[in-house]
Protein backbone atom coordinates (compact mmCIF):
# COMPACT_ATOMS: atom_id res chain seq x y z
CA UNK A 1 0.00 0.00 0.00
CA UNK A 2 1.30 3.45 -0.96
CA UNK A 3 1.53 6.24 1.59
CA UNK A 4 1.78 8.86 -1.13
CA UNK A 5 -0.13 10.11 -4.13
CA UNK A 6 1.27 10.01 -7.65
CA UNK A 7 0.44 12.99 -9.85
CA UNK A 8 1.01 12.67 -13.58
CA UNK A 9 2.22 15.94 -15.13
CA UNK A 10 3.67 14.55 -18.32
CA UNK A 11 3.91 17.31 -20.86
CA UNK A 12 6.51 17.90 -23.53
CA UNK A 13 8.88 20.75 -22.75
CA UNK A 14 8.46 21.68 -26.42
CA UNK A 15 4.64 21.85 -26.33
CA UNK A 16 4.38 25.66 -26.25
CA UNK A 17 7.16 26.10 -28.81
CA UNK A 18 5.55 23.56 -31.14
CA UNK A 19 2.21 25.40 -30.91
CA UNK A 20 3.96 28.71 -31.69
CA UNK A 21 5.79 27.06 -34.60
CA UNK A 22 2.51 25.72 -36.02
CA UNK A 23 0.99 29.22 -35.92
CA UNK A 24 4.07 30.71 -37.57
CA UNK A 25 4.02 28.07 -40.32
CA UNK A 26 0.37 28.83 -41.05
CA UNK A 27 1.01 32.59 -41.18
CA UNK A 28 3.97 32.22 -43.54
CA UNK A 29 2.13 29.72 -45.73
CA UNK A 30 -0.75 32.18 -46.16
CA UNK A 31 1.80 34.79 -47.30
CA UNK A 32 3.50 32.36 -49.67
CA UNK A 33 6.79 32.70 -47.78
CA UNK A 34 9.09 29.75 -47.07
CA UNK A 35 11.19 29.94 -43.88
CA UNK A 36 14.34 27.87 -43.41
CA UNK A 37 15.88 27.65 -39.93
CA UNK A 38 19.61 27.08 -40.51
CA UNK A 39 21.48 25.80 -37.45
CA UNK A 40 24.91 24.28 -36.99
CA UNK A 41 28.01 24.60 -34.86
CA UNK A 42 30.24 27.70 -35.04
CA UNK A 43 32.57 27.62 -38.03
CA UNK A 44 30.61 24.90 -39.84
CA UNK A 45 30.08 27.11 -42.89
CA UNK A 46 26.51 28.35 -42.41
CA UNK A 47 27.21 31.86 -43.68
CA UNK A 48 29.42 30.66 -46.53
CA UNK A 49 26.77 28.17 -47.66
CA UNK A 50 24.08 30.81 -47.34
CA UNK A 51 26.02 33.35 -49.40
CA UNK A 52 26.51 30.76 -52.14
CA UNK A 53 22.83 29.82 -52.07
CA UNK A 54 21.82 33.48 -52.29
CA UNK A 55 24.06 34.03 -55.32
CA UNK A 56 22.37 31.11 -57.09
CA UNK A 57 18.77 32.07 -56.22
CA UNK A 58 18.53 35.85 -55.82
CA UNK A 59 17.60 36.45 -59.47
CA UNK A 60 14.78 33.89 -59.26
CA UNK A 61 13.15 34.84 -55.96
CA UNK A 62 13.02 37.53 -53.31
CA UNK A 63 15.22 36.45 -50.40
CA UNK A 64 15.61 37.82 -46.90
CA UNK A 65 17.94 36.70 -44.12
CA UNK A 66 17.52 37.03 -40.36
CA UNK A 67 20.85 36.64 -38.58
CA UNK A 68 20.69 35.54 -34.94
CA UNK A 69 23.76 35.93 -32.77
CA UNK A 70 24.47 36.50 -29.11
CA UNK A 71 26.16 39.85 -29.72
CA UNK A 72 27.93 40.04 -33.11
CA UNK A 73 26.73 41.44 -36.45
CA UNK A 74 29.54 40.07 -38.64
CA UNK A 75 27.30 37.60 -40.47
CA UNK A 76 24.58 40.20 -41.12
CA UNK A 77 27.21 42.46 -42.66
CA UNK A 78 28.45 39.63 -44.88
CA UNK A 79 24.92 38.75 -45.99
CA UNK A 80 23.95 42.37 -46.69
CA UNK A 81 26.87 42.53 -49.13
CA UNK A 82 25.02 39.98 -51.31
CA UNK A 83 22.30 42.54 -51.98
CA UNK A 84 19.48 40.77 -50.16
CA UNK A 85 17.64 42.28 -47.23
CA UNK A 86 19.13 41.28 -43.88
CA UNK A 87 18.34 41.93 -40.24
CA UNK A 88 20.43 41.22 -37.13
CA UNK A 89 18.77 39.79 -34.04
CA UNK A 90 20.82 39.83 -30.84
CA UNK A 91 19.77 37.06 -28.51
CA UNK A 92 21.40 38.46 -25.38
CA UNK A 93 22.89 35.12 -24.41
CA UNK A 94 20.09 32.81 -25.56
CA UNK A 95 21.36 29.66 -27.26
CA UNK A 96 19.08 30.01 -30.28
CA UNK A 97 15.81 31.59 -31.34
CA UNK A 98 12.69 29.59 -30.58
CA UNK A 99 9.44 29.89 -32.55
CA UNK A 100 8.10 32.88 -30.60
CA UNK A 101 11.38 34.81 -30.92
CA UNK A 102 11.45 33.95 -34.61
CA UNK A 103 7.93 35.32 -35.00
CA UNK A 104 9.00 38.56 -33.28
CA UNK A 105 11.92 38.86 -35.69
CA UNK A 106 9.68 38.18 -38.67
CA UNK A 107 7.20 40.84 -37.57
CA UNK A 108 10.00 43.39 -37.29
CA UNK A 109 11.63 42.24 -40.54
CA UNK A 110 8.47 42.05 -42.62
CA UNK A 111 8.22 39.08 -44.96
CA UNK A 112 5.10 39.66 -47.06
CA UNK A 113 7.15 40.63 -50.12
CA UNK A 114 9.65 37.77 -49.70
CA UNK A 115 9.51 34.28 -51.19
CA UNK A 116 12.30 32.75 -49.12
CA UNK A 117 13.51 33.74 -45.66
CA UNK A 118 16.48 32.13 -43.96
CA UNK A 119 16.97 32.33 -40.22
CA UNK A 120 20.67 31.74 -39.64
CA UNK A 121 20.31 30.72 -36.03
CA UNK A 122 23.00 30.96 -33.36
CA UNK A 123 25.86 28.50 -33.81
CA UNK A 124 26.46 26.87 -30.45
CA UNK A 125 28.08 23.65 -29.26
CA UNK A 126 26.63 23.80 -25.75
CA UNK A 127 22.88 24.13 -26.19
CA UNK A 128 20.60 21.39 -27.47
| CATH architecture classification name of the domain at 32-120 | 3-Layer(aba) Sandwich
Helical/strand content category: alpha/beta
At the first level of CATH, what is the class of the domain at 32-120?
Alpha Beta
CATH topology value of the domain at 32-120: Rossmann fold
Strand order of the largest sheet: 1-4-2-3
Please tell me the overall pLDDT: 91
Hey, roughly how much beta strand do the residues contain?
15-25%
Per DSSP E runs of 2 or more residues, the count of β-strands stands at: 4
First-residue to last-residue Cα separation: 40 Å
What is the ordering of alpha helices and beta strands? HEHEHEHE
What does this structure look like?
With 128 residues, this protein is of the alpha/beta class. 37% of the residues lie in helices and 18% in strands. The protein has helices spanning 15-31, 46-57, 74-80, 99-109; strands at 34-38, 63-69, 85-90, 116-120. Helix 3 links the parallel strand 2 (63-69) and strand 3 (85-90). The model has no long low-confidence stretch (mean pLDDT 91).
Task: Provide key terms for this protein.
alpha/beta; 128 residues; elongated; 4-stranded parallel β-sheet; 4 helices
Helix/strand layout:
Layout: H1 15-31, E1 34-38, H2 46-57, E2 63-69, H3 74-80, E3 85-90, H4 99-109, E4 116-120
Parallel strand pairs: 1-4, 2-3, 2-4
Amino acid sequence: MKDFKVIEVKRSIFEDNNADADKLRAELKSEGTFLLNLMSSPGAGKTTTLKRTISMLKDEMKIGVMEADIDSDVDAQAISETGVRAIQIHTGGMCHLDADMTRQGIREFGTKDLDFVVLENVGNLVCP
